[in-house]
Specification:
Elements: E1 10-13, H1 18-34, E2 38-44, E3 50-52, E4 59-61, H2 69-81, E5 87-93, H3 96-104, E6 109-113, H4 127-135, E7 140-143, E8 153-157, H5 162-178, E9 181-187, H6 207-224, E10 230-235, H7 239-247, E11 252-256, H8 269-278, E12 283-286
Parallel strand pairs: 1-2, 1-6, 2-5, 6-7, 8-9, 8-11, 9-10, 11-12
Antiparallel strand pairs: 3-4, 7-12
Helix pairs in contact: 3-4, 7-8
């Protein structure tokens, strides 16, 4: 969590699906560890009117909403059983993404499942969680079952951009409390040189320069957080593959919401979207 928002509640999007339950459990553990209250929000999506007709007759069905009261009662019981000291719940009606983005303005972090189902039983696939990760005003944690439940490594992608530095700060502050190891990765896609000297992409920086960039990014962090075990690695592998591979042995993967365009992609939207889709552990997107 960012220091400026640390007093705000953990917001959990809940629809009763398996992945939403994973998100709720993750938030409960975070709340017990930090003492931050949990706020559960269930959004009943409004269905648009349905038009139809036979023999020239037009019939319009009414918009309807499913009551989520029972789901929220189950969520509150789950939180209480987990030892969460302060929790609240709320249901709203409207567009799922819009309502969650509005609620996230008053949250320290928004926690969602990687996929779920709407009030009408429609599968959300991942478009909702991806949209929230792009546009929420607070960090977003997209929860899925980790490949290695016993992992004690927080992997964070670094490219020197402000958002990647915010991701590093988030990872280190969490590790300071949990005792986990932070692994800072700087990865890049090696491009073949082009004979078109006027329109070619900028050449990749040397490995030495990239190692220097990473070292400079970590210097202040090591000084400010001397008790955190911090490892780092520079890898000449496509960022998506590097981060996804690393996630298999991680408890959490942390990325910035957007990065430096010159490096062509560690934290650009396409990479963060790919990570959200393929990572094998929960993913935190920080801005």
């Amino acid at each position: 969590m960012t220091t400026t928002r640390s007093h705000l509640p953990i917001l959990v999007a809940y629809d009763g699906s398996h992945d939403a339950h994973l998100a709720l459990t993750w938030a409960a553990e975070e709340s017990v560890r930090t003492g931050v209250p949990v706020r559960v929000l269930s959004v009943n999506e409004l269905l648009p009117p349905t038009w139809g007709g036979v023999s020239g007759m037009i019939v319009v069905s009414d918009t309807w909403v499913v009551d989520s009261s029972e789901l929220l009662e189950q969520a509150e019981k789950t939180l209480a059983d987990a030892g969460v000291g302060s929790a609240s719940s709320e249901q709203r009606s409207g567009n799922v993404v819009d309502e969650l983005l509005r609620a996230a303005e008053d949250a320290s972090v928004l926690v969602v499942g990687s996929r779920g189902h709407g009030a009408a039983g429609e599968v959300l696939l991942g478009s909702v969680s991806h949209h929230l990760a792009r546009h929420a005003s607070c960090p977003v944690v997209v929860v899925r079952e980790p490949h290695d439940p016993g992992a004690r490594r927080i992997v964070v992608g670094i490219d020197g951009s402000p958002t990647s530095m915010a991701a590093l700060d988030y990872a280190v502050r969490r590790a300071e409390a949990t005792g986990e190891t932070v692994v800072a990765l700087h990865a890049w896609h090696v491009r073949a040189p082009s004979t078109d000297v006027w329109n070619a992409q900028p050449r990749d920086l040397s490995t030495e320069n990239r190692e220097l960039l990473l070292a400079e990014s970590l210097a202040g962090i090591r000084t400010d957080h001397p008790d955190v075990r911090l490892e780092h690695e520079v890898v000449a592998v496509a960022p998506q593959k590097c981060l996804v591979d690393a996630s298999a042995g991680a408890s959490l993967l942390v990325v910035g919401s957007r990065g430096l365009g010159y490096f062509r992609g560690l934290m650009l939207g396409s990479v963060s979207q790919a990570v959200l889709h393929r990572a094998e552990c929960p993913v935190a997107v920080v801005r």
